[in-house]
Amino acid sequence: MYVCKVMKKLVSTHKNDNLTGCAIVMVQQLKAGKNGAEVLDDRLYAAVDPLGCAEGNVVLITTGSNSSKACKHDRVPVDMTVVGILD
Amino acid sequence: MYVCKVMKKLVSTHKNDNLTGCAIVMVQQLKAGKNGAEVLDDRLYAAVDPLGCAEGNVVLITTGSNSSKACKHDRVPVDMTVVGILD
Amino acid sequence: MYVCKVMKKLVSTHKNDNLTGCAIVMVQQLKAGKNGAEVLDDRLYAAVDPLGCAEGNVVLITTGSNSSKACKHDRVPVDMTVVGILD
Amino acid sequence: MYVCKVMKKLVSTHKNDNLTGCAIVMVQQLKAGKNGAEVLDDRLYAAVDPLGCAEGNVVLITTGSNSSKACKHDRVPVDMTVVGILD
Amino acid sequence: MYVCKVMKKLVSTHKNDNLTGCAIVMVQQLKAGKNGAEVLDDRLYAAVDPLGCAEGNVVLITTGSNSSKACKHDRVPVDMTVVGILD
CB-based contact (8 Å) between D66 and chain A? Predict the structure, then answer.
């Protein structure tokens, strides 16, 4: 899983029906830094968030087709889902 | 999901039968820039577009095998599909 | 999907039985260049080609497990298949 | 599979129910170095660990949807699982 | 598929039960070089090898979940399998 930081919530009014009711957050990947984990680069990713993250949370993101296993049903067309918030 | 910008529509006369009737758009991935999101690099990707995007739209793209869940049927041989247009 | 250029045909006498009869082409990924699309870098990929490409064709390549949906049967152990030739 | 080094164990109290009871380790990918394998870069990954690794172990990590085949059941929403410890 | 060179055989005594009896080889990805294909970079990958490769062979590697279709059964938790040896 990627280790990511939650940057903000995303709003998409016009989306696939099976994403209706799924919270979506923008995340950036983390790397090992001198003072703990820090943002790797400026790439933006969007992940479905069934756990209710807050901005700034450090989270585990499952990528690929298994990411739908963490959603409310298997038909969600997703490739990144928040599966854990790190302590 | 990738956060991408729609560059143009693609035309492919000779394609897999299960792609017939699927609109295909060329997209480029976005990154966090000083004045909002900007194009990450010059890599070109093609995505099936069931939502009817316009050029310049900022969209969410689901990659991998779950991308066919956003298409009209499960046999579409696709790895990138537009699943949302960002507001 | 990746946008790629077909470089040449590959020959592999000793291969998985489920690849028997599948044409395989070597491809390289394209990027946006000043005078249209050009080769991104020197990475070599191999793709199953059910469409009968010619060297130099610009093609759409579906990657990942959905790539077998464009092959003659679902047991083909493939992760890149040509699904369209761009006009 | 990726060849990785186990850096530490991760603790996530708030996580997907199907990850309950799965040990999770932070790993970094290895490359060929002058004196054997060394850490490739500072990217952080998290993997489910059914084998009981120790910090410093060099392990094989299966990525993608097949990674759940090495977990206790198929519903684990994972994309990286430790499948072997190298001798 | 990736075009790779076989570097050596790997030994893992402590591994997932469904990998028992699978030969595993360390491979590195190839790129187009001035005098034919050469090693792309120092990243190390491990692949299941059902074809019986020798060190130095140039091989086709299927990645992702379809890679298990080239193994002896579908439960092998693998993401890279040798599917062809190039002539």
Answer: no
Distance CA C72, CA C84 (A): 15
pLDDT in tens, A36-76: 899 999 999 999 999 999 999 999 999 999 999 999 999 99
Which chains, if any, share at least 3 CB pairs under 8 A with chain E? C, D
- Are the Cβ atoms of D45 and A2 closer than 8 angstroms? yes
Contacts of C20 (CB under 8 A, 6+ apart): none
Identify the three-state secondary structure at position E68: helix
Q: How far is CA C35 from CA B26, C27, C39, in A?
A: 17, 20, 12
C76 and E85: CB-CB below 8 Å? no
Type of residue found at E17: D
What are the start-end ranges of the H helices in chain A? none
**CB contact (8 A) between residue B14 and residue C50:** no
E66 vs C26, C44, C68: nearest CB:
C68
The minimal CB distance from B1 to the residues A13, A18, A45 is found for A45
Is B10 in CB contact (< 8 Å) with chain C?
Answer: yes
Which residue, C53, C46, C54, C55, is CA-closest to C78?
Answer: C46
In this prediction the pTM is 0.96
CB-based contact (8 Å) between D39 and chain A?
no
> How far away is chain A from the Cα of B17, in angstroms, using its nearest Cα?
22
* Interface ipTM: 0.94
Confidence band of B87 (pLDDT split at 50, 70, 90): confident
pLDDT band at E87 (very low <50, low <70, confident <90, very high): confident
List pLDDT tens digits, range A13-30: 999 999 999 999 999 999
Q: How far is CA C38 from CA C44, C50, C52, E44, E47, in A?
A: 15, 24, 22, 28, 31
pLDDT tens-digit readout, E33-62: 998 899 999 999 999 999 999 999 999 999
Inter-chain touch A70–D13, beta carbons under 8 Å: no
